[in-house]
Amino acid sequence: MKENRNNYFCLIINIFILSTLFSFMCLPQGHSEEAPVSYQTKDLVPLWTATNGYISINNSEELQLEPKGNRITYAFPIFNQPINILTWEVTFRIRKKYNEDFRAGLGLAEMNLNNPKTSVEIGILKGNEIRANPIGFSPKMLFTVSEDQDVKISIQKGKITYGISVNNENFSTIPVTHLPPHLYPVIYIQSCSAVFKDMKLSLIEQEQKKTASELHLSQLSTGKIEKQNLKTLPRIRLGERNGKKVFIIDSNNELFVPRGFNHVVLEHGNSGWHALFNTNVYQPDKMDSVLRQISVCGGNVIRVWAWGTQNEYGFISNQKEQILNEKYMHNFIDFLHKATEYNIYVIPILDEYPKYAYFETILTEFHAQSERDDLHVTGYNRQFFWDSFIKAKAIAIKQFIQYIKDTEPSLLSTVLAWSLQNEVFLMNSEGPFSAFTAEVILPDGSIGKVSTQEERQKVYDKTILYWANELTKAVKSVDPTALVTAGMWTSDAAGRKPFSGLLFDGKDIRFPPRPAILGGDESLLDFIDIHIYPWDNTSKVNPECHEHGLVKKPVIVGEYGVFQNVSVGQAKTMLIEFLQQAYQMGYIGDLYWVWDLSAIPEQTYSAVGEGLAQHVMQWNEWKQYFK
Fold first, then answer.
1. Three-class SS string for 367-434?
2. Residue 42's pLDDT is what?
3. Most buried of the four, 7, 93, 508, 595, by CB within 10 Å?
4. CATH number for the domain including 49?
5. Do residues 206 and 80 touch, judged by C-beta distance below 8 A?
6. How many angstroms separate the CA atoms of 140 and 138, rounded?
7. Are residues 482 and 335 located together in one domain of the fold?
8. Residue 88 in 3-state DSSP?
9. How much of the chain exceeds pLDDT 70, in percent?
10. Contact 54, 15 (CB under 8 A)
């Protein structure tokens, strides 16, 4: 339900931005933190993130690093604490050179908020020479390699020096005292693409008091949660049946059609913001009762706010050196267990952006360091435009999902999809759309203009696509098989066309995205979630405003309902008419709004009243659209 400069070469596409914590793969209990930990290629490949470029993952044995423009691109895994590298070894081959100033190799770097500052680099450059940077680390003898040859470079730390070898031959040594104490492994390219494989990394992890900007790399304790040996739901994935994209049960390849309900609990019962899992609100017995009733009437999906009111009871901890509120996470995991027991899948909404406690600090730090937080962007719109907001939300998303993965990984299959936002919209009352004169830095580093309708719409489309793609990457960096979606209403809610340019027309200041953008080929979302209400006081669904025929992704009706200004009989008729039109348009699931907000008269009819839950769930005409 709706609730009230860089130049071209600065374009950064970060694939697989890492949240996966090194503790996920590391020491067993009782292992000394001073003992070496070793990683091979298959361990490291999923853990890379890149700057000024992107990584193509072909399999678990190698990765391919591609350039963007002529800027140097570094790729590196992210660590949960300072490390002491003992061995860093990689074999690589240059695939394609784009100019004679190419270079590729590996190195050791200091990290500042995931920005590498290399202390030493060893690699191939012009003339196929092997050189070290700084140049003083290169030997006097010239090392060259053949065109397209695999090159193995190894850095090994001894008591006094780092020893560097190339193809198993001694290349150079560097005094340990010459380099900073805590260095991190990187690979790099510039003006070329390269394939990296046969990685070997040996290190010692060291404890250190973390600053706010480092806390997002730390693993939260889950030791207080007792794992429950309950059943596991099979994963739901997307597949194709008779040329139609549909949901498939992974274990048996059977069709899965999401049909269910949105469930909301407000902070103060009949007022306030969403707070279903807040520690002063959540009631396990009532949650169990809701899930049982949904199951009895035939529902198989429940959509809920995983992130709601942000205060001392919310999902963000107010304790130092802790990001997530463990009591809140206990509630959410308890809910996932209950949903699993009732064979109900979950769409958790990761709504808006984190802004409490730790994230107040991190947003300030990220903003101070960002070159993309354009001050022409103001208010609500910042969460979609500003690099600092997107980074902070990505951290929170990864922490939230990682917590579940570390605590009870089987529960991740109970999640049908993670929703990045309840309803995505931008406002023309806020910058950059409140004026027509500004040039604005977009989150991808490019420059946009807002002087014409076409330019304004292009700024909206590029911004919202980048936002969705970056956060989708964040989800999949922790759970690669997870599905990701985002919710939206459509432009007919305000009597507009989808392509509006956020012009001033005296109507709603909020503008939903174009379905064809978030549901287009460039979007990394797996499907989109469109909300249908009687915008014109009828049950007519407007295909033009849904951009039917332009949307390439599957679509579900994530919300639909009828307001209480019509009779119950009229509402029942309109609800079925909504569903008929949606499934005729090819939509593949529906979730009723809302299970029970009967205490709020201005809301739509609640499912628990007047037999409406049974009414919509007993409608079986949807089956004909999946034959």
1. HHHCCCCCCCCCHHHHHHHCHHHHHHHHHHHHHHHHHHHHHCHHHHHHECCEECCCCCCEECCCCCCC
2. 74
3. 595
4. 2.60.120.560
5. no
6. 7
7. yes
8. strand
9. 85
10. yes
Phi then psi dihedrals of residue 177, to 5 deg: -70, -15
DSSP 80: S
Residue 520 three-state SS: coil
Question: What residues make up the domain containing 335?
Answer: 236-249+257-626
Over residues 304-332, the mean pLDDT reads 96
Phi and psi at 348, nearest 5°, equal -80, 135
Parallel, antiparallel or unpaired: strands 555-560 and 528-532? parallel
Q: Indicate the pLDDT class of residue 77, thresholds 50, 70 and 90.
A: confident
Domain match, 199 and 273 both: no
- Classify 210 as helix, strand or coil: coil
Which candidate, 345, 306, 349, 350, places its Cα nearest to that of 328? 306
Take residue 518 and report the two structure tokens written for it: 């978030």
Average pLDDT over residues 32-46: 67
Count helices and strands (H / E) in the chain. 10, 31
Contact yes or no for 269/286 (Cβ under 8 A): no
Look at 285 and 147; give whichever has higher pLDDT.
285
Residues 193 and 241 in one domain: no
Q: 301, 258 in Cβ contact below 8 A?
A: yes
Lowest mean pLDDT among 258-262, 374-378, 481-485: 374-378
Total of domains in the chain: 2
Taking residues 129-139, what's their average pLDDT? 81
- pLDDT at residue 20 is higher than 60: no
- Please report which helix (H) or strand (E) contains residue 584, including its range: helix 568-584
Mean pLDDT of 252-259: 98
Residue 137 — pLDDT band, cuts 50, 70, 90? Answer: confident
Please say if the pLDDT value at position 252 is more than 70: yes
Give a yes or no: residue 376 inside a domain: yes
Any domain includes 2 = no
Return the percentage of the chain with pLDDT > 90, whole number.
69
Give the helix/strand (H/E) hosting 131.
strand 129-133
Q: Given pLDDT bands bounded at 50, 70 and 90, which one contains residue 159?
A: confident
Q: Report residue 7's pLDDT band, with 50, 70 and 90 as the boundaries.
A: very low
Cα distance between residue 158 and residue 397, in whole Å: 39
The tokens 């049909």 sit on which residue? 259
**Number of other residues whose CB lies within 10 A of the CB of residue 55:** 20
Give me the phi and psi of 581, to 5 degrees please: -65, -40
Would you report the helix, strand and coil content of the chain in percent, each value rounded to 5?
25, 30, 45
> Is there a domain that residue 225 lies in?
no
What is the spatial distance between Cα 64 and Cα 92, in angstroms, rounded to a whole number? 9
Average pLDDT over residues 418-433: 95
Of 221, 190, 247, residue with least CA distance to 322 = 221
Tell me the CB-side half-sphere exposure of residue 347, using CA atoms within 13 A: 32
Average pLDDT of the residues in 285-310: 98
Average confidence (pLDDT) over 218-244: 71
Per-residue HEC secondary structure of 255-310 comes to EECCEEEECCCECCECCCCECCCCCCCCCHHHHHHHHHHHHHCCCCEEEEECCCCC
What pTM, to 2 d.p., does this model score?
0.68
Q: Is residue 215 in some structural domain?
A: no
